[in-house]
Every structure is written in structure tokens, then in C-alpha cells.
Amino acid sequence: MTETTKYTAMALIMKAMAHPTRLFILDKLNEKEHCVCELQELIGSDMSTVSRHLSVLRNAGIVDSRKHNNQVYYRLLCPCVLDVYQCMIQLRQEDKGLTK
To answer: Is 3-98 assigned to CATH 1.10.10.10?
Structure first.
């Protein structure tokens, strides 16, 4: 893998995470596997919007899906991706401290 390819792949993952709804989905998938209908209820959006967000996450290799009967279930492939999430929270808290 070339340097350019490596950084392009990392940018794809970061871009996929760069949406509040997708961060929320990742947070929920860190707790447990969820079907699309459960995520739709938690998010409060229509099915096509939730499916689009999940598609972005799946294409970036962050989540995976499996079909069971008529339901599609999603799971987080690598929970360490949320380490970035925790880092952002810490940065935000430190930012608040700097503005006082």
C-alpha cells in the first residue's frame, strides 16, 4: 500500500464518521448489534435516510451487516474506531476550558 493509498483510505473512514447521525449510529452499534428498524426508531428519520448513513459506514469498512429473515442487522467491525470519538470529546472539553 502506497502512502497516498493509505492516507486516502484513512480519509474515507474519517469522512464517513464526519456526520452527527453516523456518530450516533456508531455509538449505538458499540453497545450491540441493531437492525435498521431499531436504528430508525432511535434516530427518528425515515428508513431511506438511515439506510444511506449505514451504507456510507459499510462502504468505509466501519460496519458490517447480516440479513436475518426480512431484517438487516448491523454491527461495528472495529470498536477502536470509537477511540477517535473519545478523543474528540476530550478535545471539546479542553476547548471549553481554554475559552473561559
So the answer is: yes
**Residue environment code for 42-78, b if the CB has 16+ CB neighbours within 10 A, otherwise e:** eeeeeeeebeebbebbeebebbeeeeeeeeebbebee
Taking only the tens place, the pLDDT of each residue in 29-45 is: 999 999 999 999 999 99
> Would you place residue 100 in the very low, low, confident or very high pLDDT band (cuts 50, 70, 90)?
very low
Given a cut of 50, whether residue 7 has pLDDT beyond it is yes
Q: 72 is written with which cell numbers?
A: 438487516
User: Nine-digit cell at 4?
Assistant: 497516498
For residue 37, give the C-alpha cell.
Answer: 428498524
User: Phi and psi (nearest 5°) for 32?
Assistant: -170, 170
